[in-house]
């Protein structure tokens, strides 16, 4: 080691750096990433948490987004979506691409996409748009809006056809949205892209739907028989997201 280096400080900075790269890790995962012993990692994390550089949610540690803040891409309504833990846990658990979409005006805007190896956001996809009437993200949000807001959005969009399965008739889409609201989730069954399925559930903040979380993959990866199982895991992730958001905004 260089004679001018301070080893303790260096270890602390290495922990901050690995959390910046991986976004959320357990104590054990940090130990493995940095080849450090449990006592050292625990003491470092305890100190960083006390100084507010790191926050702990459940067993996962992450950078405090109010200190490590990117003003350009990743903040929306005081929420840094790429820092939230739940989508990474879901993506790693299921090994399926995970999306977060947020309603902005009358559009669904992507705020995080986590693809294999499920560690980093796909930064190129952030702030792209997804169709309200064909994507699972858009449909599940539409279904859970107030009737007034739903009509406002439907009157402002065109029901463009992307595949032979896309809803292009308001007379069919509106009853479909009613079914989605009743069941609590939406499925994009190759309505936007052939060979691709997507399942989404809403995200609530202060009992208001603001967006959705979704799993997206090929028809081989997402089987029709597994939809109920995926929905249960998405609902759990959505509930955790709501808890995280309330924690960060408190």
Q: Under the CATH scheme, which architecture of the largest domain would be assigned?
A: 2-Layer Sandwich
Helix content: 40-55%
Give the termini distance in whole angstroms.
42 Å
Our Rg estimate from Cα atoms comes to 20 Å
What CATH calls the topology of the largest domain is: Beta-Lactamase
- N to C succession of SSEs: HHHEEEEHEEEHHHEEEH
Outline the biggest β-sheet.
6 strands, antiparallel
By DSSP, the count of extended strands is: 10
| Name of the level-1 CATH class of the largest domain | Alpha Beta
In DSSP terms (H or I, runs of 4 or more residues), the helix count works out at 8
Oligomer: single chain
Q: Could you report the average pLDDT, rounded to the nearest whole number?
A: 87
Beta-strand content estimate: 15-25%
Residue ranges: pLDDT <50 for 5 or more in a row? 71-76
Count structural domains: 2
Largest sheet strand order? 7-6-5-10-9-8
Helix- and strand-based class? alpha+beta
The geometry reads as: elongated
CATH superfamily of the largest domain: GAF domain
Task: Provide a descriptive summary of the structure in words.
The chain is α+β, with helices and mostly antiparallel strands and 250 residues long. It folds into two domains: 7-63, Winged helix-like DNA-binding domain superfamily/Winged helix DNA-binding domain (Arc Repressor Mutant, subunit A); 75-249, GAF domain (Beta-Lactamase), CATH 3.30.450. The chain has helices spanning 7-22, 27-34, 38-50, 85-94, 136-144, 147-154, 170-183, 227-249; strands at residues 54-57, 60-63, 75-76, 79-80, 97-104, 107-114, 129-130, 186-189, 196-205, 208-218. A hairpin with a 2-residue loop joins β3 (75-76) and β4. α2 crosses α3 (38-50) and α4 packs antiparallel against α8. The longest helix is centred in the C-terminal third of the chain and has 23 residues, at 227-249. Mean pLDDT is 87; it is low at 71-76.
